[in-house]
Amino acid sequence: MKKYISLLFVFGLLFFFQSCSSQGSLDPKTVDSLVNAQEFTFYAQRANPTNYDVINVMNSMPNSTATRMLNLDGNYTIEVSKDIMVVTLPYFGRVFNPSYGNPDQNSYRFTSKDFTINKSQSKKGNWTLKIKPKDVSNVNEINIEIFKTGKAFVSIGSNDRQPITYDGYVSKTAIKKDKE
Length: 180
Prior knowledge:
Blueprint: H1 2-21, H2 28-37, E1 40-49, H3 52-60, H4 66-69, E2 77-80, E3 85-89, E4 108-112, E5 115-121, E6 127-133, E7 139-146, E8 151-158, E9 164-171
Antiparallel strand pairs: 1-2, 1-9, 2-3, 3-4, 5-6, 6-7, 7-8, 8-9
């Protein structure tokens, strides 16, 4: 009887991990079509600051860890289309020229209509996109690495703050309904 219970427990555990690992995965053909059409949205799930001062401050808070605090809720995105890019991402790190009057300028919240995208694909099927916005003064380059499963890694280089990276996934851009 104990063997059956342990066998059921092992199968239940395997089933649970299988269902968890399949979340957020896309078909490689779908990922290729999204990147080739340049119509996708990156959803940030986690922020990874490079400044150890920020990480040390988060670790010093009682009853919390920095890893849990930097999990994002999915409302932070980069929407890319052929003619416009909308970036809404938080920033954790050192800003060299902070804006005291408008705190939205201390995070990455901007819309770019003049940008270039250089994309390349590796032998394994992963995509690398280098986006250079020309009409945004504080962002030099946005690098997006998209894996064939739809998972993505974004790094943003800026001239007025330390770099930061984000983990997440890409998906088809949702069609927004106009409010009347």
